[in-house]
User: Which sequence fits this backbone?
């Protein structure tokens, strides 16, 4: 296991960087790191997300939650609620409305999925029992 501080990095396709900026920066409170004509680098809840400019033809039209999505698992339910409230306030598109998965099981958790302007799917989760996050 890595002992030092680190930041997870994820690069995703984006056919419209202005709409991506509105979705991530305005809608989900990510912070702009760098912005160029071909990419947008952001601090996304402590990790690095980079939207790389792609053509609209390269964007998947038919997306499903599994196997490809990314997201954030928060350790505090109030953070989950804040992200959910922010998504609703900014009218971000839900791919899957908030729900409880595995209700009554040890890995019960709250979750919802958003769909960004380039059809990338994001999942946000909060576990009743934090030991079940991994």
Assistant:
């Amino acid at each position: 296991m890595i002992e030092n501080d680190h930041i997870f990095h994820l690069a995703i396709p984006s056919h419209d960087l202005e709409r991506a900026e509105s979705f991530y920066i305005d809608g989900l409170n990510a912070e702009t790191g760098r912005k160029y004509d071909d990419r947008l680098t952001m601090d996304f809840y402590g990790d690095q997300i980079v939207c790389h400019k792609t053509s609209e033809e390269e964007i998947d039209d038919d997306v499903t939650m599994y196997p490809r999505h990314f997201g954030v698992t928060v350790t505090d339910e109030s953070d989950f609620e804040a992200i959910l409230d922010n998504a609703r306030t900014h009218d971000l598109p839900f791919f899957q409305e908030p729900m409880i998965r595995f209700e009554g099981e040890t890995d019960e958790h709250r979750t919802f999925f958003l769909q960004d302007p380039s059809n990338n799917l994001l999942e946000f989760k909060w576990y009743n029992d934090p030991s079940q996050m991994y």
Observations:
- Strands lie at 9-14, 31-36, 39-44, 47-53, 70-74, 94-101, 109-115, 121-127.
- The domain at 9-55+65-132 is CATH 3.10.180.10 (2,3-Dihydroxybiphenyl 1,2-Dioxygenase; domain 1).
- The two ends are 14 Å apart (CA to CA).
